[in-house]
User: Which sequence fits this backbone?
């Protein structure tokens, strides 16, 4: 009997066991495709699934923790294994601390109707939960998720750079910004189940916000979904929708002097936007606040310290992103304010983003008063070409 620890886990062996569970179900509902990722905390695999033999196939993701599991072919359950199962159940009954996967499963269930959150996927008569004549897989928990087809935002940035671009158009950036704000709104006001049973756009609620903080919102945990210009949603007319994944580090703690759940999420949104604006990887959340710079709001407004160094002019006035809309620059600098009480509310930011998307079209940026040094990059054809080379003609994603 072999107990696989994080140091000697062999994904291919465990993958063979998972394949056996899906194959031995005998209903031809699953096709086990390949591993997606192997992390310190868990594994993800891509499957094809259909509800019945006459249904069409769809891609889904299986995610499980990197817990000790049995993979040897001659495994026989012993008293030690029975005791382990009893200990696990006792921990659950005692209300023991959640694992990261348990946290993710619970929070994704509460967020399942939010359009900008990865959707949890229900599998009826799950083979992994069935008593099949196979050696136990030893997993305490797992979950199925929707497959999001265009990879991570980090992948997208890499493809944009490979295409020779130095920056993204403001019209794209404003829309991505609103996608990220919708994620923040979802965590604060999870949408209720709609009558039509489909995910819906997230909106600020009239009740106090919840206390969910993602704590791991970066460009590897935000996925680029499908393009759907026929959706009728103006914010997704020229861009694909973004979706947030990986809630294993998320917390639900009430506000305190050094923590505000919604504004902590807003700070993380600012960090993602800084990376999209500069097309450079920069985890501002990990930088010491001593590196913050002063920023003064337009029109002689308030001055505050911000972590938006990468998108602000330096001491010599050199602008790292001269094509960036000054209003968007201000919004992101405000999101990255060191003091959370100085960051704008998500309601304010959402209003700013919506107005910019509706009013600042290609013609607006072509006006001299916009100050845009290259307004041609805001045209629909230019933007469409970006997604042509970075998504539609891009290599198949492996993430």
Assistant:
């Amino acid at each position: 009997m072999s107990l696989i620890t994080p140091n000697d886990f062999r994904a291919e062996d465990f993958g063979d066991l998972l394949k056996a569970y899906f194959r031995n179900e005998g209903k031809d509902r699953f096709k086990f495709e390949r591993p997606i990722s192997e992390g310190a905390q868990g594994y993800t695999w891509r499957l094809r699934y259909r509800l019945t033999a006459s249904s069409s196939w769809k891609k889904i993701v299986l995610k499980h923790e990197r817990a000790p599991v049995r993979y040897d072919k001659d495994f026989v359950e012993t008293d030690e294994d029975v005791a382990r199962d009893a200990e696990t159940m006792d921990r659950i009954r005692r209300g023991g601390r959640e694992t990261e996967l348990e946290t993710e499963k619970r929070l994704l269930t509460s967020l399942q109707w939010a359009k900008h959150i990865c959707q949890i996927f229900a599998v009826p008569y799950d083979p992994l939960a069935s008593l099949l004549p196979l050696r136990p897989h030893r997993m305490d928990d797992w979950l199925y998720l929707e497959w999001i087809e265009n990879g991570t935002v980090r992948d997208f940035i890499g493809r944009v750079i490979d295409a020779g671009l130095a920056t993204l158009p403001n019209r794209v950036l404003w829309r991505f910004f609103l996608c990220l704000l919708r994620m923040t709104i979802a965590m604060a006001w999870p949408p209720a189940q709609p009558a039509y049973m489909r995910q819906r756009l997230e909106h600020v609620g009239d009740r106090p916000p919840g206390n969910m903080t993602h704590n791991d919102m970066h460009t590897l945990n935000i996925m680029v979904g499908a393009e759907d210009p026929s959706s009728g949603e103006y914010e997704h007319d020229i861009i694909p929708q973004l979706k947030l994944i990986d809630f294993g580090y998320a917390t639900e703690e009430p506000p305190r002097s050094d923590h505000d759940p919604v504004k902590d999420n807003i700070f993380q949104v600012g960090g993602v936007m800084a990376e999209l604006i500069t097309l450079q990887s920069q985890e501002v959340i990990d930088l010491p606040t001593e590196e913050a710079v002063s920023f003064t709001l337009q029109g002689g407004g308030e001055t505050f310290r911000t972590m938006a160094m990468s998108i602000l002019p330096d001491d010599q006035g050199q602008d790292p992103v001269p094509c960036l809309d000054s209003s968007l620059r201000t919004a992101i600098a405000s999101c990255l304010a060191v003091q959370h009480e100085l960051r704008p509310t998500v309601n304010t930011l959402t209003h700013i983003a919506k107005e910019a998307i509706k009013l600042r079209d290609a013609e607006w940026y072509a006006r001299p008063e916009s100050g845009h040094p290259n307004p041609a990059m805001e045209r629909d054809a230019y933007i469409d070409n970006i997604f042509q080379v970075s998504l539609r003609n891009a290599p198949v994603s492996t993430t």
In short: The first strand starts at residue 3 and ends at 4. The chain has ten helices and 13 strands. The radius of gyration is 23 Å.
